Structure formats: C-alpha cells, structure tokens
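Residues pack. Consider this:
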Amino acid sequence: MYKFIITFKREIPENKKDEILNILITNLSGSLYKDIERIDKDKIVIKGEYYSFDPRKNVPWNLWTGFSKRTEVSVINNEIYYKIDYTYGVINSVLSIVFMTFLSMIVFGIGFSLASVFYSFLIFLTISSLSNGYYILRHRKLLLNTLKYGNRFKGTYDWDNILKTKSIAELEKIANGETTLTEEVQELAKKELAKRV
C-alpha cells in the first residue's frame, strides 16, 4: 500500500533537543491522538485512527482521526524532522470522490447534464484537496509554534520580564504553585527568586 508522507524539517539548538520534544508532547496533550510513544530520547511516534466511535473525537479540530495514520518526530544532530503519514486523509478523500461520482451517475440518470456532474465532481475534488492541505498546515503550525513559543499552555507572554516586575511575595506564591499558572511559569518564578536572593 502506498503511503502519503510529508516531512517538515527545522534546525534547533543542540542543547535543547530533549526540552523541545518534551514541550511538543505537552503541546500535543488533548489533541485526540490514539497513542503516543517516546522512543529513546530522540523520537516520538504519534498514532491516529481511521475512525472513532467516540463522538468527542469526530470534530473538525482533531488533527489525527481520519487524517494522520502515524506521525514521527525525530531529532537528528541539530535538526528536528516532523514526518506526517496522511494516508487516512487521502483514503477519506478517495472514498468521498467515489461516493460523489456514484451519486452524480444517479443524478445524471435523472436528467442532469454531464457538464453539471463534471463541475460538481471538480468542486468536490478541490474541497477535498484543500481540506487535506489545511490539516497539513495545522501540523506544520503546531511544530513551528512549539519551536517559536514553547509550551502553548503558558501563552506567548514574555514571562521573564513579567516576573521581574513581581514582588518577592508574589514570586513565592507563583513558585509554590499557589496560582493557576503552569509548571513552566513556576520554574521561571523559582529562577527569578534565586536571582534576587
């Protein structure tokens, strides 16, 4: 069976390999994949599923179900490779086009012209291709945002400067987990406290 694969490659700082993969795993949490596995310290494998009977997974923002069969993220030297196998997306597109063609033949038998059937087929093919392209771009954006902003749960704030303006009492509350801020922000607060002591 032929696989449909696209790979994104980016350079990363050599001393941040493990950190970037850990942040990517954090950013993937809640993204409705079937399974995720960390292989050694340089590779992550994320598996999707063709179809799910769980209605919570059959939503348009799901990156995996019905689109990605398997995604491998690996770090080799100072480059990260994000390889998407989007075979499920292509299979869904082909099945939809076959169904549309069959439906068009029935409609054509009722009395519609061949040109109208051809144009409807062409429109559906375009929509299907754009849909797969949209999901590919979302995967690319996930990788790029992870590399640019880090953990998506801490937002795109400049926490270093924000924490510099906090009092020691405020920093202690953040560092001790007495706020709703993430663990990453708590660690930054601990570092800022250490600088001030």
Notes: The mean pLDDT is 84. The beta strands are 5-11, 35-39, 43-47, 70-76, 79-85. DSSP finds six helices and five strands in the chain. The helical segments are 17-28, 87-110, 114-149, 159-164, 168-175, 183-196.
